[in-house]
Amino acid sequence: MKKTFLLSAFIISLFILSSCTQKPIINNNQASNDVCAKEGEQTRLNDDFLPATCCGSLKPMYNIGYNGDCKASNPPGDIGVCSNCGNGVCDVKNKEDKCNCAIDCQDNKAEKITTNLNGFCGRSTKAKCQTDADCAATGCSGQICGLANNGEVSTCEWTDCYDQTKYGVSCGCVAEECQWYK
């Protein structure tokens, strides 16, 4: 009986000690600085959880948004998305625009102006999109820019400020959102 008790006590002690072994401490700063972010991944300086740099020739793109000028500057320490700026494709999915990747975005959707539409009064749903084909003028009077396959419902009145042709506006995908633009 005494041997069984001692053996049981010994086994329980081993079990308790094995569950209390100390795990190595990982320094997150060191781990994130040793790793680079791949295309489409986020990067941020001074962050314990995101890499501080992009891999290889990739560059961090900050979501400034093109609004007619490029006066806004990248906020220091803001989260960027690594992109292959300079490959001839304006990759809005990875936050490229005329301001942060002019070489790829000179004549692209990044130049579409969505503010100051000179009196046009249509509404943008800002639904998520990837290309212009994802968006369409919907609503009874064609005054709503939204997802092409969604068909926004509206009342059926007409006012001249809904006239896309008169105001020179189009419905398309701008910064990954369905919006009216010039």
Which SSEs are present, and which pair or pack?
Blueprint: H1 2-19, H2 28-33, E1 36-37, E2 42-43, E3 53-54, E4 59-61, E5 80-83, H3 102-105, E6 123-124, E7 135-138, E8 144-147, H4 164-167, E9 170-174, E10 177-181
Parallel strand pairs: 1-3, 6-8
Antiparallel strand pairs: 2-5, 4-5, 7-8, 9-10
Structure description:
The protein folds into 2 domains: 26-108, no CATH class; 123-181, no CATH class. The chain is an alpha/beta fold and 182 residues long. 18% of the residues lie in helices and 18% in strands. It starts with a helix and ends with a strand. The chain has 4 helices and 10 strands; from the N terminus they run ααβββββαβββαββ. The chain is elongated and about 85 Å long. A 3-stranded antiparallel β-sheet has the order 2-5-4, with no helix packed on it. The chain has a 3-stranded mixed β-sheet with strand order 6-8-7, with no helix packed on it. Strand 7 (135-138) and strand 8 form a beta hairpin.
Tell me about the biggest sheet? 3 strands, antiparallel
Distance between the termini: 91 Å
Subunit arrangement of the protein = single chain
Radius of gyration: 27 Å
Along the chain, the helix and strand elements come as HHEEEEEHEEEHEE
Label the overall shape: elongated
Q: Return residue spans where pLDDT drops below 50 for at least 5 consecutive residues.
A: 19-33
Mean pLDDT: 75
Strands of the largest sheet, in order across it?
2-5-4
Q: Please indicate the count of domains.
A: 2
Question: Care to give the gist of this entry?
Answer:
This protein is of the alpha/beta class and 182 residues long. It has helices at residues 2-19, 28-33, 102-105, 164-167, and strands spanning 36-37, 42-43, 53-54, 59-61, 80-83, 123-124, 135-138, 144-147, 170-174, 177-181. 27% of the residues are buried.
